Amino acid sequence: MIIILYVFIGLAWALAYYLLEKDKGEREPTSALWAAFGFGVLSLIPTGIFEFLLVPTEALDDTVTASTGVTLYSAAMIGVIEEVCKFLPLAFFIYKKRYFNEHTDGIIYFALAGLGFGLPENIMYTLQYGGEAFARIFMTPFFHSATTALVGYALVRAKLHKTSLWYVVVAMLAAIAIHGMYDFGLMSGIPMLVLGSLGLTGAMSVYIFVIGVHAKKVDQKHGLSVVGINAFCRSCGYPNPKRYLYCSHCGKHA
Predict the structure, then answer these.
(1) What integer best gives the mean pLDDT of the chain?
(2) In the 3-class helix/strand/coil scheme, how is 22-73 assigned residue by residue?
(3) 96 & 208 share domain
(4) Count of the separate structural domains present in the chain
């Protein structure tokens, strides 16, 4: 069981490191990164309360076979509750912050919130089910991060391009639908649907890396990330508004 916990923590650290290492624009404040992770952890509290009040207990009890209607309702409700609770608090906190100013930021901060939510959830699941939790290593390593980053990317695009927040609503509905389908497949106990959930989580785990690469290219296109002489030093992240060849702060190539 300890090995499983170490694997979960290692995967979470690896994803966070990858996303931050690929961010070549303005350096993100360490306090803001920890805050994003903390928002994810704290979102477990309202999630637990709402699920206790709104999700039928038989849908969460492995010893009881719930009807298809109850399973479908529960999966949809869990998707709504978890995605909204993961996203909204951080969105209100970060939207107007000066450092929330690159397309990659929508991926980084909201993926960290997803990690903050998913890591404790997986740890609690491991403590409760022991060895049975091993399968979750392969099913949910980055699932919560990916669904939250999906909406976070829509949010930062709305801010930077001054577009309608309806795109954020559409992204949220997509995240809820994906989450609901994942939960329904697992809760149904039907082998083909369980395999479908496995495939869905695998696809979302790939998605977070794909959207991260895409966001970086968009930042480069708009001069928000390193490409040639950049608006921010690629070495230290210091602002370079006059696009000097060498950074006035660290002296390295900008």
Answers:
(1) 85
(2) HCCCCCCCHHHHHHHHHHHHHCHHHHHHHHHHHCCHHHHCCCCCCCHHHHHH
(3) yes
(4) 2
